[in-house]
Write a structure and sequence with these properties.
Strand content: over 45%
Number of domains: 1
CATH topology: Metal Binding Protein, Guanine Nucleotide Exchange Factor, Chain A
CATH class: Mainly Beta
Order of helices and strands: EEEEEEEEE
CATH superfamily: Domain of unknown function (DUF427)
Shape: globular
Structural class: mainly beta
CATH architecture: Beta Complex
Number of strands: 9
Length: 95
């Protein structure tokens, strides 16, 4: 079982996690989306497609662009389409 936590709060948890480029991508139904706030950050990966970013808010703490998704992933990344990944450098713990 894979899990994402921040300061002891579980943000995501599941077994159907896809791994790509050293990251774990969680199906949206395994994520507590109530902690996600849409971001205006834009990035397009040449082979995965356009990323959609989210800030992660836990109480008064906000992690800017702490999560992202490729809602319409290109064919080479179809396995992660709509899944969410989390930035471990921002203090999120992925196990």
């Amino acid at each position: 079982m894979a899990q994402v936590t921040f300061d002891g709060t579980v943000i995501a948890e599941g077994q159907a996690v896809e791994k790509m480029e050293g990251r774990r991508y969680f199906p949206r139904q395994d994520v507590d989306t109530s902690v996600l706030e849409p971001s205006t950050t834009a990035y397009t990966c040449p082979w995965k497609g356009a990323a959609q970013y989210y800030h992660v808010r836990i109480g008064e703490r906000r992690i800017v662009d702490g999560a992202w998704s490729y809602p319409d992933a290109k064919p080479a990344a179809r396995a992660i389409a709509g899944h969410l990944a989390f930035d471990v450098r921002a203090g999120l713990e992925v196990t």
